[in-house]
Each structure stands twice: as C-alpha cells, then as structure tokens.
Specification:
The complex is a heterodimer. Chain A contains no helices and 11 strands. Chain A is an all-beta fold. By secondary structure, chain B is mostly beta strands. Classes of the chains: A mainly beta, B mainly beta.
C-alpha cells in the first residue's frame, strides 16, 4: 500500500535548527510536497522536490532522496511564528497526493 | 480578495439537517478539491473536479454530495450526517499541467463541522 510516515510532534528552541523527516512508499513517484499549517488556518505550500538533492528557500530547505524514499524539511534560525504543523505529501504515478498525518512543531523561547 | 474562500467557517448541525458548504476560488485555476481533515490523521481526498467535471470520488458516503457549477465555485451538500463526520473540511484549487499533474494546491481556511 501507499504510505507516508512523519513524526507526530517535535519541539525546538527559538533560534535553533530543526529537521522534520518524511519517508514515503508510493506506486510510482512524481514529486514530494511540504505544506505548513498554522492552527486554525489553511495549509500553505512550502516546497516541491522531484529530483534528488537540496532545495533552499530562505530559512527553509527541503531535501529528497528518491532511492531511499526519504525527504526532510530543514528550518533554520527558528522563530516563534514557525510553530505550526508541517505536512508531507508524495505524488504517485497517477499524480494523486498521498499525505502524511503532519508533524506538529512546537517552538520554545 | 483571498485566493480560496470558504463559508461558513463554522457549522453545527443535527443528524437530520441539510446544509451546504461553499468554496470560491479567485485564482483562475481549473481544478478544485474537497478534503476532510481530522485530528492527527492524513488529509483525506473526497472529491476532485477538473474543468467542472468530477474526476475522482474516493468512496465517499452518499450523504456528501458535491456540486461544481463553474470553475470558480464548489459546493459540498450535507445530508443526514453522522457524528463521526465532524471534522474540518478543506477546499483547494490548483492549475492542472498539460501532460499530467498539477501545480501546488491553494487551500481555503476550512469549514469546521460539528455533527450532534
């Protein structure tokens, strides 16, 4: 079956770095998405990876290894506003998105 | 105007009521979606419309009935729901890419549904 695994919850300190991991098993693969969702708000797009390697976008970076079925989202210089849930989703051979349950990130001062 | 707007934001209904959720997108996208979001569970895709035609229905109970009158509007009609249907219902839109796939999803803020 198709599956996405990501940690349920993580805690980090303001100013630090945190890495949120995501492993996926899909029938075919057409890329991996990361979304951010603040409590009570809409999910918003963060990144898309389809090729192996690291994509950097400001304080956020996303990494993909297709051979390992693995991705991570790296957040640097953490700010209190980064407290949110981070959703990982893989696109399968039919371009259907398979979603993880999300990782709730708690930032402490 | 925000990209994707959903109304109402909150809805409480009894099991015998009939209500509708509304979604409107101002992004010129050609695909719209209904998702169900329950606590600590992955997003569940309910319905997909591409160019106003339903292209996917993931075995959703018939008490949920979608309607897409045009590319900018999407409705979810609710009838005789169960308490386990209580969840956040998210609407999203995207632009389909020639050859397959879509661009990123743009979500509305959701309609929080409570079924008593």
């Amino acid at each position: 079956g198709q599956n996405i695994d990501q940690p349920t919850e993580m805690t980090a300190t303001e100013g630090a770095i945190v890495q949120i991991n995501c492993t996926y098993q899909t029938s075919g693969f057409n890329g991996l998405f990361w979304y951010q969702q603040h409590a009570g708000e809409a999910p918003t797009f963060l990144s898309y990876n389809v090729l192996d390697g690291l994509e950097e976008k400001g304080r956020f970076s996303s990494f993909l290894s297709r051979s390992k079925g693995y991705s991570y989202l790296l957040l640097k210089e953490l700010q209190m506003k980064d407290s949110a849930s981070y959703l990982c989703a893989a696109s399968d051979s039919n371009y259907q998105l398979i979603w993880g349950a999300g990782t709730k990130l708690i930032i402490k001062p | 105007e925000t990209g994707v707007t959903q109304t109402p934001r909150h809805l409480v209904m009894g099991m015998t009521n009939k209500k509708s959720l509304k979604c409107e997108q101002h992004l010129g996208h050609n695909a719209m979606y209904w998702y169900k979001q329950s606590a600590k569970k992955p997003l569940e895709l309910m319905f997909v419309y591409s160019l106003e035609e339903r292209v996917e229905n993931n075995s959703v109970p018939s008490r949920f009935s979608p309607e897409c009158p045009n590319s900018s509007h999407l409705f979810l009609h609710l009838h005789t729901l169960q308490p386990e249907d209580s969840a956040l219902y998210l609407c999203a839109s995207s632009q389909e890419i020639a050859g397959g796939g879509t661009g990123e999803l743009f979500f509305g803020e959701g309609s929080r549904l409570t079924v008593l």
